[in-house]
Known about the structure:
Largest sheet: none
Helix content: over 70%
Low-confidence stretches: none
Distance between the termini: 110 Å
Mean pLDDT: 88
Number of helices: 3
Number of strands: 0
Order of helices and strands: HHH
Amino acid sequence: MAQEWTPPPGSDTPANIPNYLVLAIISIFCCLPLGIAAVIFAAQVNNKVAAGDTAGALDASKKAKMFSYISIGLGLAGIICYVLFVIIMGVGMGLAGANSY
């Protein structure tokens, strides 16, 4: 009895492409418009992987990461600007109050 050759399993297994969904959700709290774009692209990654569109999934993953980082960066820059504004105004008001006597 001859043993039949069986081909190795195909590469139909889904690719391991990160979707950055958690990072995208966190970025919503920093800059809403860019955070929403990040969530939309992050949600597309798994669907594109399941459909076999690896290139599209990689593109959506890169865009989700990019929009998330930009959103978080803008949020942090806004917080830093606000803190500097409060410090500068506090010092200015303190100096104005000291000169009024």
